[in-house]
Design a protein that fits this description.
The structure is a single chain. By secondary structure, the chain is of the alpha+beta class. The chain folds into three domains: 3-131, no CATH class; 177-371, no CATH class; 393-519, no CATH class. 24% of the residues lie in helices and 27% in strands. The chain contains 16 helices and 31 strands.
């Protein structure tokens, strides 16, 4: 097929101005015909105008994943199954797309993961696309990634459409783990000598949790829970009602960020204080309950969530609405959260022996063992500085981009205070005293070797351990404070409450908050 035979309606494109011709060619990229795509791609390469690079990068990602699902599909446990039907269609191909990009830009990536390298390169560039790119991108997503495009096409929105990246998945196959069953931790504990345990009955849960498995631990209404990271991995999100409290354990695999949110939001339009700002948080008519899921989109390397009730888009890391109905009605809303501990199962069960743990029989039919000791290519995103999460522009700063940190937000959801976990572990005494907003706080490593932040007693504060290995604090007045999950308590009965924070890699904090302070 020659360029002259590529038509828009009945008009051949031989006499257009340069810009008109470029626009027309990019329109041909949306036509449902792979032969038309190939001709348009070749013609755009011949035009030599870098303003079409953003269009081609979008198409390269879709083309690469759709046509090599067994290698690039996500979640990885679904790669042996058929891809979503919309990715199998014969027109979901743009032949010559990599060669065209190489002719328009300096790089010439030729590895098996060239599309990832192109995304990394593109995220570092400042390329102004042709006018109308955002509408073109919306049409691309609505047509070729319909479950994603249907959510992305929202108003109002406070994100940059050009910066939104597709994350290899969508809500139709990155399914949240909804209504899971929790059982006594000892019932799924696989450590120790199996011969010393009673033989389980046929309906007993599978013993699968080893002491070195990473778990996300939390407490709701006095009951401790543990969710193994490798079981949550292919879901990235868990919705449950625990002890009467509706919660979502959200997890961004790209920035290793488990955050536990309260799913209740105010029904009114004044959510500046979060869900706790409602007049009657216990009233049946005071709060709505949202059911969260993954959109399949990424913003600055962090997953974009949505809620099923309103299809509002949410920033997973900040817990704020970024597009759609709730942004319009309650733009200052931010979700309340509970503290999450990221530790090993052996340490968690030792500190919380009555903990409940997730039953591995979730009903979703996944081979979760795939992720047992294997986080797939995400290990590169967590540990290799040269690999950049999609949509993230490198920036020199006070911490390495992939540093593991713990952040705390005060009254303003756009401002966060960050603690380097490695620095806290290596610091003398392992205690950090600081000011967050208008509160004096103390941060330390608890018995599970994870960060815990509390309102501070009188300083200076010293961390001590008893002969039994229990951790306590001694304040500047000599008062001893014992640690519990949710508070510090003195012998005289005074308390200092725990302040929930959130885990993640440093880049997620500097890109998702207007101001990020590093505490040291």
């Amino acid at each position: 097929m020659t360029l002259d035979s590529v038509r828009c309606g009945t008009v051949t494109q031989t006499d257009r101005t340069s810009v008109d011709r470029l626009r027309w060619l990019t329109e041909q990229l949306l036509v449902r015909d792979a032969d038309v795509h190939a001709t348009a791609v070749s013609a755009l390469a011949d035009e030599g105008d870098e303003r079409v690079v953003p269009h081609l990068v979008e198409l390269l990602v879709i083309d690469s994943i759709a046509n090599d699902w067994e290698r690039f599909g996500f979640p990885a446990v679904l790669r042996e199954r058929d891809p979503p039907r919309y990715l199998e269609l014969p027109e979901v191909r743009w032949p010559g797309i990599r060669d065209a990009l190489a002719s328009l830009a300096d790089p010439d990536f030729d590895s098996d993961h060239a599309w990832v390298e192109w995304e990394t390169w593109y995220s570092q560039q400042e390329i102004d696309p042709l006018d109308g790119f955002e509408e073109w991108k919306l049409r691309l997503y609505r047509s070729y990634l319909p479950p994603v495009g249907g959510l992305l096409d929202c108003e109002p929105r406070e994100f940059d459409l050009q910066g939104i990246r597709w994350g290899n998945c969508d809500r139709s196959f990155l399914a949240a783990l909804n209504g899971p069953t929790f059982v006594p931790g000892e019932a799924v504990d696989a450590s120790g000598d199996a011969d010393d345990r009673d033989v389980p009955e046929d309906d007993a849960p599978e013993r699968y949790l080893d002491d070195d498995h990473v778990v996300f631990g939390f407490e709701i209404e006095g009951t401790a829970y543990a969710v193994p990271r490798w079981v949550l991995f292919p879901h990235e999100l868990l919705n449950a009602e625990l002890q009467g409290v509706p919660v979502s354990l959200t997890y961004c695999t790209l920035c290793n960020a488990p955050i536990l949110y309260d799913r209740r939001v105010p029904t009114g339009g004044d959510g500046a204080d979060g869900p706790s700002g409602a007049d009657d948080p216990d009233g049946a008519d005071a709060l709505d309950v949202r059911t969260f899921g993954s959109t399949g989109m990424l913003a600055s390397g962090n997953k974009v969530m949505y809620d099923e009730e309103t299809e509002t888009l949410w920033d997973q890391h900040a817990g704020t609405p970024i597009g759609g109905e709730t942004l319009a009605t309650d733009p200052d809303l931010f979700l309340d959260q509970f503290a999450v501990t990221q530790t090993e199962w052996g340490d968690w069960k030792a500190e919380y022996p009555a903990t409940l743990a997730l039953d591995l029989d979730t009903g979703y039919g996944y081979d979760y063992s795939y992720y047992d000791g294997n986080v797939d290519f995400f290990e590169h995103y967590w540990n290799r500085e040269e690999i950049v999460q999609p949509g993230v522009r490198r920036e020199e700063g006070p911490l390495p981009e992939k540093a593991s940190v713990y952040g705390v937000v005060a009254d303003d959801p756009d401002e966060v205070w960050v603690i380097s976990i490695d620095d806290l572990r290596e610091g003398e005494g392992s205690v950090l005293e600081a000011e967050i907003g208008d509160r004096d706080v103390v941060a330390l490593l608890d018995a599970t070797d994870d960060v815990a932040v509390y309102e501070a007693p009188a300083g200076p504060v010293e961390r001590v351990e008893t002969d039994e290995g229990e951790i306590a604090l001694v304040d500047g007045e000599g008062t001893r404070w014992s640690l519990s999950r949710n508070e510090l308590r003195s012998a005289g009965g005074e308390t200092r409450e725990r302040i929930p924070g959130r885990h993640g890699l440093w880049f997620a904090f500097r890109t998702h908050y207007e101001t990020a302070h590093v505490l040291s």
